[in-house]
Amino acid sequence: MGFEIPDDLMVSVSGVRGRVGQGLTPEVVARFGAAFGCWLKERNDRPRVVLARDSRVSGPMYRLAVLAGLESVGCDVIDAGLVPTPTALFTIRHHHADGGIVVTASHNPVDWNALKFASAAGMFLDGGEAAAMRAWLDERPIRRAEWDALGRVEHDDRAVDRHLEAVLNIPWLDFDSLRRRRFRVVLDCVRGAGGVLLPRLLEALGCDVIGMDLEPDGRFPRAPEPVAENLAGLEAKVRETHADLGLATDPDADRLSLVSETGHAIGEDLTLALAADLVVRHRPGRVVTNLSTSRVVQDAVEAAGGKLDRSPVGEINVARTMQQVRAVIGGEGNGGVILPDVHLTRDSAVAAALVIQALLESGGTLSSLASRYGPYVIVKAKLPRGSAAVDALEDLAGRLAAPEVDRRDGLRLDWPDHRKWLHLRASGTEPIYRIIAEAPTAEQARELVEEARAALSAGREV
Ligand code: MG
């Protein structure tokens, strides 16, 4: 009641994010903590909430604020400390907790931070859950606990151990052969939370690990998103050390990017493609990815004898669709791999284990494995969102006459015979349209983006 969300704060389905020293104040964070606690109390009078953070310098401050908010409404807190986001979500299910909050701005720059909210299922909130939770921010009165009913805190220092054990239990990992092969791996954790988990995982997989920025102090030495243009340092280190591959995570270690033995970032889409190929060959079944992910994943899945289903964009939409179709694996083209054997959330440790096993089974190099797929070029653009855009989308769909049209998340047009597609959707966090196209050549992809841009621009002027 009486609470206004500051203008420079971004509230979306998965949580709330903002800049340190600006909209994301400790007061706002405490308020979100209290609101989340009140929402959980609708079902359980004494909820237990897992709290975790990535390595950002502002993390300890926001941890205290969100902890105070949770305690103030009578939630008990299980503090997992500084751990990867997938470790935090795994911990929720281990404790049968009622939910969880992770203090992390994922791949955003160092001056950002955020809260991500998860349910008892160890999955991020979906649209309905997030809306119900947010009602406690501005419509419903926060009821504070009396002095003798405040929440209590307990610490869980085994969260990483348990998560690691679960990843090492993935059924297709051949430890004897992996130890004999002894892959030389350069690991770049960008001084994020991955440093507390991934080196241990790689050692357990028999790898010779060359670490880069494994200290989780939050002082990111590169732009933290693990996209190719940010991985020059890793590429150089792979060449210099004659490593078999390089692995890069984002600061909360749910995404994994690959660098081949030639010292080239091979694109984040390949992470899911290689992981899905391995899993489908061992366990034939369905695979889910979102509508904006490269065809590389579809090609890999179909070549392995599986079937690809697509979902609206957003990790929770992929995970929910995976539940519906009982997928054997799924994820996103940004390096986020989801394996239900471990849990229904993106996990860089799962991704690393599967990719290394896939490399072992291929018997060759990562660059030769990657060269089986594509070529594809993705071109992306943004456009301000106009009021007439819905009509413009329909005009575009009519004019381009694609054989496959999907309207579940904006508009996706697919020409399977030409191996090209176009996806236009409204951003969940900004007043823009995202346009993304993929085709065998850059020229074809750019052409599709220009068609979309022209259609939406015309729509705006109506
Ligand atoms: Mg992330």
Can you walk me through this structure?
The protein is of the alpha/beta class and about 450 residues long. It folds into three domains: about 10-155, Alpha-D-Glucose-1,6-Bisphosphate, Chain A, domain 3 (3-Layer(aba) Sandwich), CATH 3.40.120.10; about 165-370, Alpha-D-Glucose-1,6-Bisphosphate, subunit A, domain 3 (Alpha-D-Glucose-1,6-Bisphosphate, Chain A, domain 3), CATH 3.40.120.10; about 375-460, 2-Layer Sandwich (TATA-Binding Protein). It contains 15 helices and 20 strands. It has helices spanning about 25-40, 60-70, 85-95, 125-140, 160-170, 175-180, 200-205, 230-240, 270-280, 295-305, 315-325, 350-360, 365-370, 390-400, 440-460, and strands at about 10, 15-20, 50-55, 75-80, 100-105, 110-120, 155, 185-190, 210, 245-250, 255-260, 285-290, 305-310, 330, 335-340, 375-385, 405, 410-415, 420-425, 430-440. The protein has a seven-stranded mixed sheet, with helices on both faces. A five-stranded antiparallel sheet has the order 16-20-19-18-17, covered by helices on one side. Strand 10 and strand 11 form a beta hairpin. Helix 9 (about 270-280) crosses helix 12 (about 350-360). The chain is globular, with a radius of gyration of 22 Å. It starts with 9 loop residues before the first strand and ends with a helix. Magnesium ion (MG) binds next to loops.
